[in-house]
Amino acid sequence: MIIRLTNTQGAVSFNGILIDQIIERAMKPWEGRVWIANYKGRSSDKTVRSGNLEPLEEKIISTTENGVFIRLYLMLRFGTSIKACTESIISSVAKDITECLDLPIEDIELVVTGLISEKPAKRDIVVSYSMLTEAEDAPLW
Predict the structure, then answer these.
(1) How many independent structural domains does the chain possess?
(2) DSSP assignment string, 48-67
(3) CATH code of 128's domain
(4) pLDDT at site 120
(5) In which domain, by residue range, is 39 found?
(6) Residue 14 burial (C-beta neighbours within 10 Å; 0-12, 13-18, 19+)
(7) Residues 6+ apart with CB under 8 A from 88
(8) Global pTM?
(9) Which residues in 59-92 are b (16+ Cβ under 10 Å) and which e?
(10) What mean pLDDT is predicted for residues 61-71?
């Protein structure tokens, strides 16, 4: 998949596999606690454990005038901190995209679709890059 970003200054094209590798590297510290899922909250543990990154096909990558938009669906193991995990993954992906690829970011959304435990629990929690950057800019009272 070739991704093309066009603006008034010109156009940039790159292979979507770069984004897959950036996401994979960002998720490495959370291995065994976070899985890529689809929008329905299902994840095949067998394919993820075998190193087959087919679930990365469930990600959404698009380009707009403002930059790159990424949406990724995740399932977390019960007891994993949603805030720490999502902030870590978002900041790592954002850093690599802005520094390595030198591309602007419109938004990065992580959608936590469920928690894995004895009884899987459905969730619909959205954490985005724009929410994190707004929180950093907010005044401390």
Answers:
(1) 1
(2) HHTT--GGGGG-EEEEETTE
(3) 3.30.70
(4) 73
(5) 2-137
(6) middle
(7) 26, 29, 30
(8) 0.79
(9) bebebeeeebbbbbbbbbeeebebeebbbbbbeb
(10) 83
